[in-house]
Amino acid sequence: MSELQSSIQFLTGVGPKKASLLKSELGVETLSDLIHLYPFRYIDRSSITPIAGIAPDLASVQIQARVVNRNLINIKHLSVIVEDASGRMEMVFFKGTKWVFDKLEPGREFVFFGKPQLFNGKLNMVHPEIDAPQEGSYTQTSLTGVYPSTEKLKNSGITGKFMCKMQQSALSLCLNEIQETLPDYVIRDLALCPLQYAIKNIHFPSDSYALEKATRRLKFEELFYLQLSLLKQKYIRSRGEHGIPMPKVGPDFHLCYNALTYSLTGAQQRVIKEIRADISSGHQMNRLLQGDVGSGKTMVAVLSCLLAIGNGCQSCIMAPTEVLAQQHYNNIRKYLEPTGVKCALLTGSTPAKARREIHQGLEDGSIGLIVGTHALLEEPVRFKALGLAVVDEQHRFGVEQRSRLWAKGPAGYAPHILVMTATPIPRTLAMTLYGDLDVSVLDEMPPGRKPVQTMLIGEGKRAAMYNFMRKEIAAGRQVFVVYPMIFESEKTDMQNLEKGYEDILQAFPMQDGYKVAIVHGQQAPDVKAFNMDAFAAGRAHILVSTTVIEVGVDVPNASIMVIESAERFGLSQLHQLRGRVGRGADKSYCILVKGLKVSKEAQQRLELMVRTSNGFEIADEDMRMRGPGDLEGTQQSGLPISLNIASLARDGRLLEEARNYASRVLDADPGLQNPVNVKLVQELRKDKYSIRDFSKIS
Ligand code: ADP
Ligand code: MG
Predict the structure, then answer these.
(1) CATH match for 251-442 among 3.20.20.70, 1.10.1040.10, 3.40.50.2000, 3.40.50.300
(2) Residues 391-407: what's their mean pLDDT?
(3) Which of 265, 272, 292, 298 to mutate to test the pocket of ligand 1 (most atoms within 8 A of CB)?
(4) To the nearest whole percent, how much of the chain has pLDDT over 70?
(5) I need a labelling partner for 481 at 20 to 30 A (CA). Which of 136, 393, 517, 639 fits?
């Protein structure tokens, strides 16, 4: 057996107890597991900073200072004043105070390491690491790795120092057993460092340059295999599935196009070209179309359907709800007027007689375009020749539905598929989540949209805001007022909502002619519908509500969206809420009202909302701030594989590079049969690269 697979319990100082803890806390069992547990940051302990030279925004700093005095304010608060030749500062401890008190005798000198901060205008450090000063050089290396840890591990003596020692012994036992995982030519092409060098330097970097090389190599490898695995599935599919060749444009496309009262945006034109190239290639198209609300996806869908029709096929557009299907149908019918294409609507509530006629029309090919809900997937629906299926909003469209749709293509062919989504998914995330789909982006809004003006105010401006609302209402507009409703704090949220409602009733009294409606999740459905309708029909001026209005409500006459306690909402949610206004002809406003206590991150989020209305920018920023794991609205329950070192939020460019390179490798050797690629095949067999189905439709 190789050393790599042996248990960590035989490392010096580890033993069965620590080993079992390392397994349960970090999943580390073997030496191989251990050396693949990388530091998540590094601290520079090569230099000592004079106290007077400390900037409070430094991530960490090391000082050498003498204890002046110590003051045990209470058992949970110890304050120690230290000084060096340049100045004085305070060290603060809230834990282990007795032990620290005894250790830090006045007059003695120590090395303190930690994060400096300003507190009441004075510099201090909370819970610094404390070491005895050493003669000459202070540290063994300049950069020391910090490993993931838990309270339990620390309490059992598995400290940062202990972890470094374990890594050192593990590496000395088995570093030269580690086999290179990338083919030579890949390493050469991309000027990467060898794996052994990378592993050694990720743990114990000889300098920052070596650390950078090691990091790049390890991140690239991870992203490359991830993309290779996804793209390989795509290659297999595009070779296995014959696409219906659609080389022609056809007359209906031109008839519709020429009758448009506006010109397509550059983004719409580009996407239609991308779709055309796909469907005329002879391969089956599987494309995701992303575009913010209002970016004009419907037009792209209609023109794509007309391309299919121009090649003797039929097409369908599937919406998630009946209301949306109806809306689509109304719009699309208008677009098709100049053409000879027959269009129909099929939903769960289509009467039996009409339904039979539609079934007939689809079978004999007289209906060219069918709009509908999931009813389209049902058994009696048969097409003469379904060439393109458009799915609006991918969320509720799973693998099983996909196969039912594929079965409706002409014999031997799967229809081309276009999935449309308004959820702005950052590009790097889309490349991974939908790695085996092609992604098109409508990143340009049709001209003439008036952007919603966003303002951020505090409690002090409330009276002014009410005045502004009165002015807009007097001009015939309506106002949304939204309160947060978060499950964990439901009770206080409910109280806040009710209090907010009373405030509004006072500021907008009935005797002055104001009508205020309220909607929240705890109301009976008919009460909710009654209030919602009152607002939608213009009978109420103000709708006070929780986020239930986030989806679906369309009230073009509403010109103000007030979001209370805005700091408690996520970015995507704020973006969705803001999208509820700005739908009519009037200038619209979004007013973010922030509470008294707002964290630095929340403040940044709110300022970003004021700065931009670009959904993609907001989504990217959201991912950067929060990490991809809890991106709202994408319904992802994790990533296709767990990334060990690379980050989708930060390593976007490397991900793109990895994807391009993986695609080149597959272009040259689609089956990975060339002997130079034998390592690739071996690596892809590993569990960590077996990918769950995340693209939903692939
Ligand atoms: P979404 O991407 O949200 O589905 P729609 O397709 O519903 O957007 O388009 C929103 C509105 O923009 C529609 O009223 C549509 O007629 C209009 N529209 C679409 N494309 C353009 C364009 N190129 N120029 C002007 N208006 C457009
Ligand atoms: Mg739409």
Answers:
(1) 3.40.50.300
(2) 68
(3) 298
(4) 90
(5) 393
The closest-lying atom of ligand 1 relative to the alpha carbon of residue 268 is 23
CATH of 453-630, one of 1.10.10.10, 3.30.499.10, 3.40.50.80, 3.40.50.300: 3.40.50.300
pLDDT at 191: 96
Average pLDDT over residues 442-463: 88
**From the CB of residue 142, how many other CB atoms can be counted at a distance below 10 Å?**
17
Question: Which atom, in ligand 1's list, is nearest to the CA of 331?
Answer: 16
pTM to 2 decimals?
0.63
Question: What phi and psi, each to the nearest 5 degrees, are found at residue 179?
Answer: -90, 140
Neighbour-count burial for 427-446, b at 16+ CB within 10 Å, e otherwise: bbbbbbbbbbbebbbbbbbb
Superfamily the domain 47-140 falls into:
Nucleic acid-binding proteins (2.40.50.140)
User: CA 651, 654, 655 angle in degrees (round to 5)?
Assistant: 80
* Residue of 299, 331, 392, 616 to test ligand 1 pocket, by largest number of atoms within 8 Å of CB: 299
- Residue 263 Cα: closest atom of ligand 1: 23
368 pLDDT higher than 70: yes
Residue 554 confidence class, pLDDT cut points 50, 70, 90: low
Calculate the alpha carbon distances from 637 to 229, 285, 631, 692, 693 in Å.
20, 26, 10, 11, 12
Asked if 47-140 and 453-630 have one fold, the answer is no
Ligand at minimal distance from the CA of 267 is: 1
Q: Which protein residues touch ligand 1 with a CB less than 6 Å away?
A: 262, 264-265, 268, 291, 293-299, 422, 446
Note whether 531 and 518 are within 8 A (CB): yes
Note the CATH architecture for domain 1-40+157-175.
Answer: Orthogonal Bundle (1.10)
